[in-house]
Amino acid sequence: MKKLSYIFLVGLVCWSFVAAGVDGAAQAKEIAVIWDTKTAMPQNVTMGFLPKLRELAPDLKVNLFRELKDFEEAKRVFHECESKMDGIVFLRSSGAEYLGKINPKVPCFIGACNNPVELGTINNLNAPEGMVTGVTYYIPYAQRLDIILSLFPATKSIALLVEKGHPSGPIEQAGTQAECKARGIAYREVVATSLDELVRETRALGKVDLIILTNTRLVMDNVVSLLPIATPMGIPIFSYADRPVKAGAVAGIAADDRKLGAMLAESVVDVLLKGKPVSQVPVKTDTTPQLTINEPMMQSLGLRFPEAVMKNAAIVR
User: Fold this and answer.
1) According to the 3-state scheme, what is the secondary structure of 246-276?
2) How sure is the predictor about 15, in pLDDT bands with cuts at 50, 70 and 90?
3) Contact 269/133 with Cβ under 8 angstroms?
4) pLDDT at residue number 49
5) 53 Cβ partners below 8 Å, 6+ apart?
6) Gap between the Cα atoms of 95 and 74, Å rounded
7) Residue 283 carries which DSSP code?
8) What DSSP state is assigned to residue 303?
9) Is 285 inside any structural domain?
10) Residue ranges making up the domain that contains 38
11) Which residues pair with 133 in a beta bridge?
12) Residue 279, class by beta-carbon neighbours within 10 Å (0-12 exposed, 13-18 middle, 19+ buried)?
């Protein structure tokens, strides 16, 4: 188990801090931040969360339990912290999903996760019931498909690639399939448990107009293994996260993890220091997600995107 205390080192940080301007009783407050396994999104959220929390709450003590061995260890640490902490930040979709199965004893905050309503965490983003609020990287699927069709207007068929068993998988399958059906786009999918299966089943797809990568780790981490399948057939790869765009996907749409991290800090302060009921602290989203475009890949595929789209996108060169 990796635990860091009282050190600020960007991305791998833990220090003590509570709000300037919040009453002195706040100084006794203490929280834990927990996530399992090594993955980029919780680190990015934390890099937005910790500086904002230090700004808002410089005396709030933060205990960071990062990259725990597996989810079983994360659950064990969570329950240990329940009896010691005033609040817990439980990151990743697995953490949010778990909170929906239990009755937390202290206020809990989610982040680096998909839609908590569909994960079964809460019923209402705007008025979360129980003891859980936070942030989500969720982007409505109608908005995603609007962006996809602005880039690839001739798309008549897509294939969605999914890691089997990932909590986000069923959400992204259902949302994408529903939007494809509404727009008359043929929908196919690959659901894989290993890289070998992912590559084999993607190759077996044959020709489709577009491949979409879900926000599941097996898929996001293996773009370089998918490019030799897609590129020779002229199939663009679009991503529901920004990281695969740097690895060769032609474009992607994603919430800003660091922005969400700062929003998460504000929610922690609202509940733990300002005393707002959880139900009055909505689960926050990034309402202006960022489109990222890999310009060399776009050019290699002979694609041209609208000038207005290019102007507002983050460009990988």
Assistant:
1) HHCCCEEEECCHHHHHHHHHHHHHHHHHCCC
2) very low
3) no
4) 98
5) 17, 60, 62, 265, 268, 269
6) 8
7) P
8) -
9) no
10) 2-137+257-280
11) 109
12) middle
How many other β-carbons are positioned within 10 Å of the β-carbon of residue 224?
A: 10
- Distance between CA 277 and CA 269 in Å, rounded? 12
Check residue 134 and give left, alpha or beta (phi > 0: left; psi -120 to 50: alpha): left
Alpha-carbon distance 47 to 63, whole Å? 15
CA distances from 44 to 29, 112, 168, 193, 255 (A): 24, 9, 18, 26, 11
Q: Into how many domains does the chain fold?
A: 2
pLDDT band at 39 (very low <50, low <70, confident <90, very high): confident
pLDDT tens figures, 162-217: 999 999 999 999 999 999 999 999 999 999 999 999 999 999 999 999 999 999 99
Residue 288: CB partners within 8 Å, gap ≥ 6? none
Amino acid at 257: D
Judge if 29 and 54 occupy the same domain: yes
